[in-house]
């Protein structure tokens, strides 16, 4: 089954691959029907770019149901069947859409993110069927085909299906298997940072200018922009916006204790990441908290109105940056704080140039309760399979759909990863350890049993 799934090039951010996304959805629908599930494909919540510049419905969102027993808890498992682009020329050792197997690994685009975990859920159902055992919960599946392209249409569908008799209305718990572990030990993810993306522009002259003629005479937009951007962080990588740092929730003692038993070697992490060093010191707690607990700001690039090789003074310069947000940094307040700070810094430059700010994208942070029923079940499931408690971790990245589920359904959301830190998702030679895939399916099955307990 994995070989068949990997062979379908369901690349969602390439409009020319839209037919393959639809093909992958049909493949999953057929598998679900063969397992006895009630299933529908929904493409009625938006349109997207299709082949040849056309507009087409969003890739089908699969909604499936196994069981409708009012006496049982209802769990909804989320995954996605679309993948990132991949080509041999990008550094792959083998064709990316051909599943390759070694003694310990399976290689192929989507094998870890997220076709492998999606098919693990179907393998769990298949195991119950073959054993002739009734599942301990009602299980619903929500598999989308646009996660790598912003989950177009899914948030709208969740809202629509939260009404009376809607698909999500009777769901008690939501589990997401679209994240990774920190190391060799099993993990449960309870927190994700949010993201707020901005573009700031400084413009001055009507046209690009010759630096030999106008240098030193004209007020240069690039110089102003660099001064403004450099004010956002200090020399150690900490946020330089006091109104933002004041929003960050303090670290409680209960939270700090979660870091004690995490198996993480900061020196090995730095070596594997090929970075020259870290801000704040080479301790486990510092590195992990900077990875996922505290806010960060990253400048992603500067676009100019002239060729960067030309000895010109560009008339307009635009920088794009993002802030990874954490509890309790609310998106509206972050926007206000950034605008206030940057405007103040620019005004203090006393520049004759023009300055603009554009708020490009926002997704809130996510924080689960590690002591609630959902996370307690995930803890016991991992212990049943691995013989020890999992590590409870956060992730520095964002999974916007987790926020959408939390905000719209008001249910407990648990991230139950089965993938490892060396899987190289989104990169060349994506892989997954066979043992992680097999053990991951066992954890999923055990999780359902523990939810029902």
Write the layout of secondary structure elements.
Blueprint: H1 2-7, H2 18-34, E1 38-42, E2 47-49, E3 55-57, E4 61-66, E5 74-80, E6 100-101, E7 105-107, H3 115-131, E8 138-144, H4 154-160, E9 173-176, E10 187-192, E11 194-203, E12 209-210, H5 211-214, H6 221-230, H7 242-245, H8 253-258, H9 266-273, H10 284-293, E13 296-304, E14 312-313, E15 316-325, H11 331-348, E16 354-363, E17 366-367, H12 373-386, E18 391-395, H13 400-409, E19 412-415, E20 431-433, H14 434-452
Parallel strand pairs: 5-8, 5-9, 9-19, 10-18
Antiparallel strand pairs: 1-4, 2-3, 4-8, 6-7, 7-20, 10-17, 11-15, 11-16, 12-14, 13-15
Helix pairs in contact: 3-14, 4-13, 12-14
Care to give the gist of this entry?
The protein has 14 helices and 20 strands. By secondary structure, the chain is α+β, with helices and mostly antiparallel strands.
Count the beta strands: 20
The Rg value, from CA coordinates, equals: 24 Å
**Based on helices, strands and strand pairing, what is the structural class?**
alpha+beta
Distance between the termini: 31 Å
Describe this structure in words.
With 453 residues, this protein is of the alpha+beta class. 33% of the residues lie in helices and 23% in strands. It is built from 14 helices and 20 strands. It has helices at 2-7, 18-34, 115-131, 154-160, 211-214, 221-230, 242-245, 253-258, 266-273, 284-293, 331-348, 373-386, 400-409, 434-452; strands at residues 38-42, 47-49, 55-57, 61-66, 74-80, 100-101, 105-107, 138-144, 173-176, 187-192, 194-203, 209-210, 296-304, 312-313, 316-325, 354-363, 366-367, 391-395, 412-415, 431-433. The strands form six sheets. Strands 1-4-8-5-9-19 form a six-stranded mixed sheet, sandwiched between helices. A four-stranded antiparallel sheet has the order 13-15-11-16. Strand 2 and strand 3 form a beta hairpin. Helix 3 crosses helix 14 (434-452) and helix 12 (373-386) crosses helix 14 (434-452). The mean pLDDT is 95.
């Amino acid at each position: 089954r994995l070989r068949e799934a990997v062979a379908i090039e369901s690349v969602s951010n390439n409009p020319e691959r839209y037919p393959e996304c639809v093909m992958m959805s049909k493949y999953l629908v057929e598998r679900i029907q063969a397992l006895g599930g009630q299933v529908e494909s929904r493409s009625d919540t938006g349109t997207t770019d299709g082949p040849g510049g056309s507009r087409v419905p969003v890739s089908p969102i699969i909604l499936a149901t196994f069981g409708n027993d009012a006496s049982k808890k209802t769990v909804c498992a989320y995954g996605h069947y679309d993948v990132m682009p991949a080509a041999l020329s990008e550094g792959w050792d083998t064709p990316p859409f051909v599943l390759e197997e070694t003694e310990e690994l399976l290689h192929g685009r989507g094998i870890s993110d997220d076709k492998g975990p999606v098919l693990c859920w179907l393998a769990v159902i298949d195991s119950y069927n073959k054993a002739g055992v009734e599942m301990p919960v009602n299980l619903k599946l929500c598999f989308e085909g646009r996660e790598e392209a912003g989950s177009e249409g899914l948030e709208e569908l969740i809202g629509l299906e939260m009404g009376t008799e809607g698909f999500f209305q009777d769901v008690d718990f939501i589990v997401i298997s679209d994240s990774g572990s920190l190391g060799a030990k099993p993990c449960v993810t309870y927190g994700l940072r949010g993201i707020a993306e901005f573009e700031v522009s400084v413009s001055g002259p009507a046209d690009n200018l010759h630096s030999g003629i106008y240098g030193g005479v004209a007020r240069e937009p690039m110089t102003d922009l660099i001064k403004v951007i450099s004010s956002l962080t200090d020399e150690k990588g900490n946020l330089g916006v006091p109104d933002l740092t004041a929003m960050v929730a303090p670290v409680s003692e209960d939270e700090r204790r979660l870091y004690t038993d995490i198996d993480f070697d900061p020196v090995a992490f730095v070596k594997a990441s090929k970075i020259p060093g870290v801000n704040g010191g080479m301790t486990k707690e510092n590195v992990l908290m900077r990875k996922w607990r505290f806010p960060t700001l990253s400048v992603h690039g500067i676009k100019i109105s002239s060729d960067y090789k030309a000895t010109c003074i560009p008339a307009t310069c635009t920088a794009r940056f993002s802030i990874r947000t954490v509890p309790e940094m609310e998106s509206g307040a972050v926007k206000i704080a950034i605008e206030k700070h940057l405007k103040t810094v620019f005004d203090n430059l006393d520049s004759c140039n023009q300055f603009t700010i554009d708020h490009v994208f926002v997704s809130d942070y996510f924080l689960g309760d590690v002591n609630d029923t959902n996370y307690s079940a995930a803890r016991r499931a991992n212990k049943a399979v691995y013989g020890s408690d999992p590590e409870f971790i956060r992730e520095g990245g964002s999974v916007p759909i987790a926020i959408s589920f939390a905000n719209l359904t008001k249910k407990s959301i648990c991230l139950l990863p089965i993938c490892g830190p060396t899987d190289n998702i989104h990169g060349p030679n994506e892989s997954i350890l066979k043992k992680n895939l097999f053990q991951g399916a066992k954890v999923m099955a055990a999780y359902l049993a523990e939810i029902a307990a």
